[in-house]
Amino acid sequence: MTNLAEEVGRLLLERAQTIALAESCTGGLITSCLVDVPGISSVLERGVVTYSNASKTDLIGVPAGLIERYGAVSRETAHAMAVGIRERADTDIGLAVTGIAGPGGGTPEKPVGTVFVALATTEGVEIVECRFQGDRKSVREQSVKTALETLRKYLQGR
Prior knowledge:
This protein is α/β, with parallel strands linked by helices. The protein has six helices and five strands.
């Protein structure tokens, strides 16, 4: 994952694209990967861990009613997280991840390994829905990789 984070960091720097992250199930791992890239401070505005529902509402403006209606792990919440962090940080890109890493917390509709990655830009919001397999650590690592790959794909298309 180090090489992927380095590539994404380089692309952010080359394109002078600012980014802010809102992480739930990844607990700051994506931000940590990016912080390893020298010079990233010129484009990485902030990374927040919004693990609880209250933090999603308080810190990045996700409406409480949206979480009540769709759940913290949903396409709608991921969308609101990415838009909220981008708007509050005033960055070019907002990246958000919410999911169920396990071992508990899953349901038949949203089993353990359900993760939503959302990328908000001036062009709109892209959401990737994932159903990962594995233990808690594996789900979190797969979530980080997917988020970084989604960001890389966007930056390469610019």
